[in-house]
Amino acid sequence: MADQIPLYPVRNAAAAAAAAANRKRAAYYSAAGPGPGAERPSRYQLEDESAHLDEMPLMMSEEGFENDESDYHTLPRARVTQRKRGLEWFVCGGWKFLCTSCCDWLINICQRKRELKARTVWLGYPEKCEEKHPRNSIKNQKYNVFTFIPGVLYEQFKFFLNLYFLVVSCSQFVPALKIGYLYTYWAPLGFVLAVTITREAVDEFRRFQRDKEVNSQLYSKLTVRGSCFIRTDQLDGETDWKLKVAVSCTQRLPALGDLFSISAYVYAQKPQLDIHSFEGTFTREDSDPPIHESLSIENTLWAGTVVASGTVIGVVIYTGKETRSVMNTSNPKSKAGLLDLELNQLTKALFLALVALSVVMVTLQGFVGPWYRNLLRFLLLFSYIIPISLRVNLDMGKAAYGWMIMRDESIPGTVVRTSTIPEELGRLVYLLTDKTGTLTQNEMVFKRLHLGTVSYGPDTMDEIQNHVVDSYSQTHSQLGGNTTSSTPPRKAQSSAPKVRKSVSSRVHEAVKAVALCHNVTPVYESRAGVATDAEFAEVDQDFSDENRTYQASSPDEVALVQWTESVGLTLVNRDLTSMQLRTPSGQVLTYCLLQTFPFTSEIKRMGVIVRDESTAEITFYMKGADTAMSTIVQYNDWLEEECGNMAREGLRTLVVAKKALTEEQYQDFESRYNQARLSLHDRALKVAAVVESLEREMELLCLTGVEDQLQAGVRPTLEMLRNAGIKIWMLTGDKLETATCIAKSSHLVSRTQDTHVFRPVTSRGEAHLELNAFRRKHDCALVISGDSLEVCLKYYEHEFMELACQCPAVVCCRCSPTQKARIVSLLRQHTGRRTCAIGDGGNDVSMIQAADCGIGIEGKEGRQASLAADFSITQFRHVGRLLVVHGRSSYKRSAALGQFVMHRGLIISTMQAVFSSVFYFASVPLYQGFLMVGYATVYTMFPVFSLVLDEDVRPDTAMLYPELYKDLTKGRSLSFKTFLVWVLISVYQGGILMYGALVLFESEFVHVVAISFTALILTELLMVALTVRTWHWLMVVAQFLSLGCYVASLAFLNEYFDVAFITTVTFVWKVSAITVVSCLPLYTLKFLRRKLSPPSYSKLTS
């Protein structure tokens, strides 16, 4: 069948090559089966006959199929990298690649990483350890004493702007190139560097303090019962406590000091990234026979976790850089905003204009004398075309935006952790969000219990409670229990039909299974706030319900146990070997915990083997996802349908089953299980094989449904973002049905919108057919699983991303953290648009750090995401205001501020060019000394910087009309078009100011300086007023403050101004005339443009 799928039209001229390709393709597809794809031949055959795939080939050439399968994943990249070769490749970025590669090679040579190996650690005998391990300390500092200054200077001067001014400033030490006073060049540069070094020093000191605090924490003592609880929220983002157990043979030692008198060692696997697995063995050699005990994740406490209950003493296996927390910590990259990159490009354009202008001046001179020296002097004279104050103003503006965001009462608790990219909030096109804890509350509520023939919902939970009460009342009476404490049976029960008894028995079995099959532990807090083991050691202890809390590794588990408590079966105690349940009648049932099989993302199920102390019956309980349990339970005709129904309701489903075991069956299983756990090679596979021997023909008990409720304001926020032109992708580890339901209930996908569920694919042929089926759909949301996504990205990365980016919404389910980060990176790579990732758990950190802008939510999964993010919020609904209000204002203000600062440098450089042209192209500065310093600081700084308070629309208008956000993503506020407009304005005003002063000056050169410089200051103040769209009282203060500073300084600048002349009427009218001519036409053009072609926001505000 596969050789009949023409993936691309075959040309007659290449018949032989096509035939060979077809043979190879047929061999590939035939070799791929049998497999998942082989189970559905009819489906693909029907599609092959009706789809005419040869008329809609995917976007790749036939030659791709002539390669081996191992080369398929390189095809899209090969097409990209073959575009540029030779000199073109070197000029277009190849030199950066070569430099980076050389630097990486040198670093690898200087810092070769030690090969990680498995190790043996002896108790109390460190001299027996042959290998040396890293220091047991954590270091997150970027620099040390020797590298701080060089490192900070490198980070600053790798930007073109700062490097340019360093060269210009250094040139002033050459007498032939000296233009003015040294401080006019070194003072601004020194100020920028001082601020930067101070900021970095403060951040570095804070890192040092955090490292010192972490490195001073120690664990000390072993608990009596051999178990403790730990919190891992800073490692994996989960806030639920996890139970850890000690090595059993060490619990029988008389005293703690005996640990150092025994001959024992721990063999551990080599350090690795996975925080959810560990393999090792504990061996005691001085016993007869030697004791070998397997070690797993249940016996480990990773560095970075917190002992929440109990105390611990342990053997240190991994230290320093080899700990899981350090190995899983990637150094966050320094994020540069799109606006900064655009300004950097404009700065380079200004530099080219500077060089061109200098060459023109030297050419008009006729290349007389030492023309190269004159060229360098002109380069220095016009150096103000590139203003060094640009970086200072923008950095101060970013700090102001961050302060405004954190002060906004409408989004309380918002924290700006990366102050360099607030403008990114106004340029986003893609928003990638987690589901659990981000769109939902991560607060689980039990909603439904299905037994196959009967279903119970929130309105019928009292019936379940009655069944439980009746069942345990009858059981208690039959066992001859204490009738005084039991609930008397209802009269209706004695006459109930057998069917009712059957349902009652099934409900009883289902509730008991849910109450026993979990990893939940009840915790009782004393008045001092410390849990003590002795408080609940006795069976007849008076347990206080209001003083009990449940701890588990998942909120789903807690919700299930809380539900069993609400229907009458309460978990009152649990330790390593037993579990106790309290019935509605008050009787306490004790179950011996023989084995516990924890839940993992691979097997998607968990189980326990328990022995009832009263009847000695051994039962194997198991619960898990329907995909994992459907092949384990006995045949039924309702499970798949009801799982789909619950998923459509947005419920997280779990299938619960049981299997009765005889004593002989369990003993045989236990011996095989213990032997598999001691294996050093392929332990996980061997253990799984033994457990799977029990997972056959289990009795299906029930199906449970738990709801994860949506966060407040999720629906209107997503609708607002969609109206703002932002495409939203949901990346979650949850199952496909639940993810699809949440996407619809949250209005991520509207109910009237079509949804294309990408079928599971495992091979290239299946992926090809599904992609062709998907590309026929228009304006529909895509739902795809992580496995299918991996196959598509392996073979059709470019094609899949192109199709997915056309969708209004995309839902990726069963995604791993690395897949989330890869999707973000691919979006940035293939679209070139700005991306934002938002999440609340430790599994979202990689996605947040990979995005252009990362937002973390402080949720139930801990603070790891919020600490790693650029912006931290408390609720998802705050994203709307953060983007459409603060993102808009930050981008608009920085665009206006950056262009105005460049205008301020361009206008004075234009005046210098006019002055030099009039005076025979002499390379003599027009303004010197304090005039140049004052022009960039006290005379114009406050009004120009007050632009950070400007706003084109009010916040409530921006929230009401999110469509205004679409214009921001087009980058029209800062582009080469707007830049050229400001260049023309600067050339016009600079020419008017200089020529006007030259025409009106009276015999003395000092009058030219006085008239032109005063008119220049007034023009700048008026241009700020022209740029402002909404006045703030601080703007008015800044205008009058700067004007007052200039007027006051006139009395002290006798070196530049003639006080007698500037107090005359002649000076006033000449300055006024020049200023009016330079500004009035611009005011007139702005007024006409507002009337004839008003911007979209002005229509709303009017």
From TrEMBL:
Chief location bin: Golgi
Cross-referenced InterPro entries: ATPase_P-typ_cyto_dom_N, ATPase_P-typ_P_site, ATPase_P-typ_TM_dom_sf, ATPase_P-typ_transduc_dom_A_sf, HAD-like_sf, HAD_sf, P-type_ATPase_IV, P-type_ATPase_N
Keyword S-adenosyl-L-methionine found: no
Residue stretches of biased makeup (Polar residues): 472-496
Region (Disordered): 472-503
Catalytic reaction list: ATP + H2O + phospholipidSide 1 = ADP + phosphate + phospholipidSide 2
TM region positions: 349-369, 375-394, 901-923, 929-949, 979-999, 1005-1026, 1033-1053, 1059-1083
CDD domains noted in UniProt: P-type_ATPase_APLT_Neo1-like
Domain P-type ATPase N-terminal: 129-186
Cofactor field: Mg(2+)
Domain of life: Eukaryota
Matches recorded under Gene3D superfamilies: Calcium-transporting ATPase, cytoplasmic domain N, Calcium-transporting ATPase, cytoplasmic transduction domain A, Calcium-transporting ATPase, transmembrane domain, HAD superfamily/HAD-like
Ranges for domain P-type ATPase C-terminal: 867-1094
EC number: 7.6.2.1
Keyword flag Translocase: yes
Bilayer topology term: Multi-pass membrane protein
Locations listed in the record: Golgi apparatus, trans-Golgi network membrane; Membrane
Keywords from the UniProt entry: ATP-binding, Golgi apparatus, Lipid transport, Magnesium, Membrane, Metal-binding, Nucleotide-binding, Translocase, Transmembrane, Transmembrane helix, Transport
Sequence similarity: Belongs to the cation transport ATPase (P-type) (TC 3.A.3) family. Type IV subfamily.
NCBIfam families (alphabetical): ATPase-Plipid, ATPase_P-type
The protein's name in its UniProt record: Phospholipid-transporting ATPase
Taxonomic source organism: Vicugna pacos
